[in-house]
Amino acid sequence: MPKSGPTVRIVLDATEHEQLNDAVLKVHKFCPGQSDYRYLAILRWYTAEALERIRAAYEAAGDQPVLVSNLPQFQDVERTKILTLLLGQTIGNCVAYINYNGSYLTDIRPTSLSAEKSAGTDLLAMHNDLSWAADACRPRTLVLVPHIAKGDVPRTLLAPATEVVAQLDSATIDILQEPVYEARSGVLAGRSYELVRRMALLEKSSSGRFVIRLNFDSFAPAAGLTSTRREAVARAHERLHEAALDIGRVRGHAVLEGEALIIANDECVHGRDPIDTSACERLLLRAYVVPDSVVAQHGHTLISLDS
């Protein structure tokens, strides 16, 4: 069984801390209260030794999440937004999805005003964000930065793909690599119709590592399977969920103020422990990041999930 918590950790020193603090303050002074895109237009040109170290660690981490600590903290949420975008832009390109939430940043907190799964208080099942989307648009990386994390903060559950697959038998792995699942999406992506794609839940990336696809209730055995085959396909899906949750509970980390989690969305499934709103206060900011090749294909960073 793997060690608890993230294994790749970076602690910024005092100089690196001040570099990022100064960068955020300068951007906020230059364009206070502007749009996320306006912040990004400036941050794309910003470099620092601290960011180079974070980028190098992420690129070397494979499917392992990266925990960064001793980050500057801000009372103004706009400054925390700038910090989140700065970290995202360090490892790729922050993007917004036209037909998802239209924003470069998402605020994650318990609220009755959102239909998103992450807005609830129950256990957030292990998943990859927008895992049913094609390579041409799917977020490859998540950057999570808490603006507020006080009290009994719930853990973000983390399950690297290599560790999940190691818990599965060969027959289950074989089934999961077959395109015998239907991915259904539409309502949460703002469409007026449902899109159905036939997919595998385990794939090999160009790097040779496993890519896992899990997204709440989006996947089901494909239509037309025999009852026996359907049962085996459903059981393989269930085992993938179980293995991911087992690893996620071991690898879970309660990300606190002054920290950030950088997660390879394709290669590390994630979830969240239940939240007791009477025992904690939590506001998490999330940025979606894609590589240069995705932005080059679209020509901009406002991307459609229909691509």
TrEMBL record:
It holds the Pfam family TauD. Residues 51-288 form the TauD/TfdA-like domain. GO terms for molecular function: dioxygenase activity. The keyword Iron applies. The keyword tRNA processing does not apply. It comes from the Bacteria. Keywords: Dioxygenase, Iron, Oxidoreductase. Gene3D superfamilies: Clavaminate synthase-like. This is TauD/TfdA family dioxygenase. It comes from Actinoplanes subglobosus.
